[in-house]
Amino acid sequence: MTETAPDLPEAANRRFASQAFTSGLTVPDFAACLQMGLEPVGYVQGFCVMQWGWYGLNSPYRRGISPYSGGQGGYMESWQCPHGFVSNEHRSWGQNYEQSWIEDAWGQGFGTAYSRMLEEAAAVGAHGVVGVVDTADRLGDLGVLEFHLRGTAVKVTDAPAPARGQPWTTYLAGQRLAKLIEAGYMPISVAAAVSSVRVWAYCMTEFLLEGTSSTWGMQPAGAEIIQVASAQMAARQIAREHVRAQMAGDSLHGAELVVSEHQLSEGDQEIQCLLRGNRVRRFKDFDPMPVPHPTVRLS
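Now predict its structure.
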C-alpha cells in the first residue's frame, strides 16, 4: 500500500506504507521463527458456527459403518443385570455406544473453520501457519457451537512462491518448532478429532456410581465400575483411530488428549475425548541449527 488515507494518523499511514503485518507470536517465538528463516506475514483466522443439538439416528451426520469396529457400525457394548430381579426402579440392562453423528458434526465444524483459515493464509501468499490455536465454545445457552482456529501465517525466506496446494500448519512455534526441524521433521498439518461415547447405566453401575454396593451383595463397596471404565477406554481408542486415519503414514507429534464427561440424567452420561497433535514427516537426518548471534551487546 503506497497511497495515504487522510482519515488515518500519520504513523498509521507510515506503517501501511512499510507493509506492516500482524502476528500472534510472542517475542521469543517471533525471534526463533526469524532464525529459522520463517517470515511472519499475517495473523489468519477461520470460523464456523453450528447449531448444536441432539444428532439422532435420522441425523444427516449419522455415519453408519465405522471402519475400526469390524464393520459393525461403531463401538457398542451391553451389560445385563446379574440379579434375576426386575422392577420399575431396577435397571436390568445397560449399554455403551459410540455417537458417530456427534463425531461427524464436530469434524465438519472443525474442518470448515480450518479450511477458512487456510484460505486467509493462501491469500497473503503464506507457505505455512505456525502457532495454531483451536477452540470450540458454546455461545451461551443457544445450542450453538463456535469453532475458531487462528495462527500466524509465515513465508520461507528466499523460497519460491507457494504452490497451489494448501499451506502447511502446526500447533508449534518458536523453539519447539525449531527443535522439530532440527531433529529432521517437517510439519504437514494439525490433526484433531473427537470421539463420543454414551453410557446408559445398568443396575450395578448405578449402585456403584451412587457410592453404595448392591442390595444383593453381588459386589463389595470399592469395586471397579466396569461399564464406565470400558467407555473411557473405548473413547480414547476411537479418538486415536480417528486421528490415525488422518496421518497417511506420517507421525503424530506433541499429542494432547482432553477428556470431558457430561452427566445428562441419572444413569445417563456422555464421555467425549478430544485428541490433537501435529502431523509431521521426516525429511532429513538430525542437523543442529547454527547458534544465533546476539543482536544487542551489553558491553
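The domain at 21-282 is CATH 3.30.110.70 (Translation Initiation Factor IF3).
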